[in-house]
Every structure is written in C-alpha cells, then in structure tokens.
Design brief:
Structural class: alpha/beta
CATH architecture of the largest domain: Alpha-Beta Barrel
Number of strands: 13
Strand order of the largest sheet: 5-8-9-10-11-12-13
Number of helices: 18
Radius of gyration: 22 Å
Strand content: 5-15%
Shape: globular
CATH topology of the largest domain: TIM Barrel
Number of domains: 2
Largest sheet: 7 strands, parallel
Helix content: 25-40%
Length: about 475
C-alpha cells in the first residue's frame, strides 16, 4: 500500500495533517474539504470519497434512517440543500474539532447522506476489547465503584436536536440510514463532540433485528415502526427466523468497529426488550394502550411466550454481535413495559428479559435496563438482571434506590421537558437530581427518556458541564 500526503491547496494545517490519499490496487481515496453551513453553525469537515473499480464493487444504488440510539421512532427531518464546497476560504472556520473519523466518515450533504450499498472496503483500525474502558467514569459508575465525576449521556443522544445531524441526515427512514455505515458512525460521534458526554450510544434502532430477518416493517418518519402485516397467529412465528448478525446486520457490526476504533469514551450497544418489540409487531404501529398486544398476551399465553422467546433470541444475537465488535456496555430498552401491572410483568415479560440479560452476562460488560413509567415494577426491572436500572422522571432517585436496592446503579432521571424551559430551569432541575442522588457512586446522569427534538443543544451542553462540575461521587452526606 502506498500512502502519500495530498492536501488541497489552502487547507488548514489541521486538515493537512489528516488528509491522505491511499492507493492500493484498485482502491483510490480522494480527499475533499466540505463546508456544511446551517443558520446557526458552520462546520468544516473533510469527506472521504471512496472510488472502487468495477472489478471489486459494482455501481452502488442510492439507498438510504434516525434519531438514534434506541428510540424506535424517527422524527421527520427536512432534507438539507447541497452545501457549497470551498477548500480555501473556510478551511479554518470549523465549528468542531476535526477528528480522524471526520476525515473517514463525514459526508457532503449533497450526496453522502446516501448509503453506499455493496461496500467492499473494510474499515481501518483496531477493535478494542469490551473492557478497554474499565477505568472510565461511565463504566465505574455502572458498577457502583469509586470514580472521579458523575458521568452523563443522553438517550436519543444522536440526532434530531442537532443542526449538524439535520445537515447530513438526508431523507429516508432510519432503517435505511442505519445501513449506511459511514453515516451512522458520524451521527453517533456528533453529540460526543458537541457535548463532551462520557459515553456514546450506537446510532441504530430497536426494531433492526426484526427488520433484518424480513418480518416486514419500516420506521415511518414522524410516526415510528409500522408493520404491513402485523403478528396475529402462530403461523407468524415463521417470519421471525434466527438472526445471523454477520449476514443480516453486517452494517451494525461494521459501525461498531469503526466507532470503537475512533472513540475515546465507551460505546453503548443496545437492543429492544422482547415486550416492547412485540408490541410494535402486534399493534402494527405505535400505540398508547397496547391493547392488541395485551389481548394476545392474555388470551393466548403459549403463543405469547413463544413470540417473546423468539424476540429474546433476536436481541441476544444482536447484543452479542455488538459486544464482540467492541461495545463497552449494552442497554436493553423496554420502553413500554410501564403499561403492565406488576403481576402481568412478572408472568408474561420478566422471564424473557431475564433470558436476554443472562445471555450477555458472561461478556462482563455492564447491562442497563430501561423503561418508561416503570415505577411500580422497578424492583422487577432490577430483578431481571441488569447492573444499572434506568429511572424515568416520575420516581425520585432516592425512592428508586429503596425499590431496587443500594447495590444496583441507577441511570437518570431529568425530565426531558425541563430542557425546553431554558438554561436556568434546566440547571435547577439538574441540581435537584444530583442532590437526590446524594453522592452515591452508582449513578449515571441521564434524562428520564429521550431528548425532545426541538431541545436547544446549548442547554444540554450546560447540563453536561454542570453535572461534571457539581456532581458528587463521594457517598451520602451526613
């Protein structure tokens, strides 16, 4: 392989140090400087355009999702017009610090929000072992061990509230965007650069495994998961074949590998818990009452358990593949488990969540378990086997600890809506959460649910700074 510096004239020294042309047989990498401008921010990135000869890659068709990490409904995002390319006038006016991944993965909004299908170019870089960040504040907090400062990250972290996200997200569903390895990598990294959070969460979606095995669903922008032919009978079990991550979701594995090679904070992988995924497959779209799912659960218990067992296997396969690729922690999202009574949860759901969390326990990575409105079943959420229990804003952390036990770490639990009330209100509530935790080392600061799309990113940045500056990890006060 021949490597030579090839920097467009007029690039900054930072850009010069990152720009490379790599030539190896039929593979040519050309470097261009792209300026992404929005109303409030100017971002200078270096995009890598990979040109592969027809002998190694057929012409890729334009295919193309979203809000990340773990949220299964992607908000509609307006396409961004093609941005001007200027390698000389604005190379020094970057809003963000350029990184290796910016060079490798950032994409011009005019064309690179489109995934490249049929990629044959393997990512460069090592895959860190799952314990690579064992000494980080985030991992130590997940294990309720001593550490220096309260770690913070946000659910629905990568995405819809960031102008840089909207600039490159493009059109199409979240499922299409997830299949674009470079785009998913960049969207995962954006909030880490912007906020200085202590962990990244993979840009993906909880319905990816069911989608990948061909169940027949999509994620409609502004709506959420929709299934053309919802689950109705035992015959539908055949539509949930086992997941082969190498064959079915290679793009997820590759995204994790690229992120692990780039990140200097832990990466959180995730999956949807069997109940929440089942609710989408049965309802056919997001539901407020989950009536059809509960009706099947109560009327056909044997079929219900068979369905959730299949979904548990999908989650296990997906999580295991993410851990094997280098994820340092995982989160199991049971977003809608709070719709169940304690008795219903114990009988119909708990065994399947236990199966998932037990299957990944040998990996040694911290396991987080989260649901919304789960105050009445927090003890069972903890019993399912997670190391960290996610708490929404309805239950104070002090009370949550009495329900789950002091040995478990907690994650949460700022009400996402307070960030809409401005910096002063958000920081006051942030300090309330920190005070309620009272220095317990087993605390990962987070929202009680996902970031609301119209949240001001500057407010979230102030929350991060406040948590880092004022959070205590030295144990309860006298």
């Amino acid at each position: 392989m021949a490597v030579a510096n090839a920097v467009p004239q007029g690039c900054s020294e930072t850009s010069r140090s990152l720009a490379l042309v790599v030539v190896d047989g039929a593979i040519t990498v050309a470097v261009v400087v792209v300026v992404v401008a929005t109303a409030a921010v100017v971002v200078t990135t270096v995009a890598v355009v990979v040109v592969v000869s027809t002998a190694t890659e057929a012409a890729a068709g334009d295919e193309e999702p979203g809000g990340t990490e773990a949220v299964s409904a992607d908000e509609a995002s307006a396409p961004t017009p093609a941005h001007a390319v200027d390698a000389t006038a604005t190379a020094n006016s970057s809003h963000q610090t350029l990184t290796t991944t910016t060079v490798q993965h950032a994409v011009a909004a005019s064309d690179s929000a489109r995934p490249r299908s049929g990629r044959t170019v393997a990512s460069v870089g090592r895959v860190s072992p799952p314990n690579a960040f064992d000494d980080s504040n985030f991992i130590q907090a997940c294990r309720a061990l001593p550490h220096d400062r309260v770690p913070v990250w946000f659910m629905r972290q990568a995405g819809r509230s960031l102008p840089e996200y909207r600039a490159i997200r493009g059109e199409g569903t979240i499922l299409q965007a997830i299949e674009n390895v470079d785009l998913s990598t960049e969207l995962t990294l954006q909030p880490v650069r912007r906020y200085g959070v202590d962990a990244a969460i993979l840009y993906s979606d909880i319905v990816v495994p069911a989608y990948a095995v061909g169940f027949g669903l999509t994620v409609t922008p502004g709506v959420g998961p929709e299934v053309e032919n919802p689950f109705r009978s035992r015959d539908d079990l055949a539509r949930l074949r086992p997941l082969d991550p190498d064959a079915d979701t290679p793009y997820v594995i590759e995204t994790v590998r690229q992120l692990v090679a780039e990140l200097d904070v832990p990466l959180i992988g995730f999956a949807g818990a069997p109940f929440t995924v089942a609710s989408y497959l049965i309802e056919g779209r997001p539901s407020k009452d989950h009536a059809k799912a509960k009706a099947l659960m109560l009327s056909e218990e044997s079929l219900w358990h068979d369905l959730l067992d299949r979904l548990a296997d999908l989650a296990i396969a997906s999580l295991t593949s993410q851990i094997d690729a280098g994820a340092s922690a995982i989160q199991l999202f049971d977003s809608w488990a709070g719709s169940l009574s304690p008795a219903q949860y114990r009988r119909y759901v708990l065994p399947h969540s236990q199966k998932v969390l037990a299957a990944v326990e040998p990996s040694g990575v911290p396991r987080i378990h989260f649901g919304v409105a789960t105050g009445e079943i927090l003890d069972q959420i903890a019993e399912a086997g997670a190391d960290v229990v996610g708490v929404d804003w309805r239950v104070p952390l002090r009370e949550a600890r009495t329900r789950v036990g002091s040995a478990k770490a907690l994650q949460g639990n700022l009400d996402p809506t307070v960030a809409l009330a401005g910096v002063d209100a958000a920081l006051a509530s942030t300090r309330d959460v920190l005070a309620d935790n009272d220095g317990h080392p087993g605390h990962v600061f987070n929202l009680g649910h996902g970031v609301i799309p119209n949240t001001d990113p500057d407010v979230l940045a102030e929350i991060v700074r406040t948590v880092h500056a004022e959070g205590r990890t030295d144990g309860p006060t006298a």
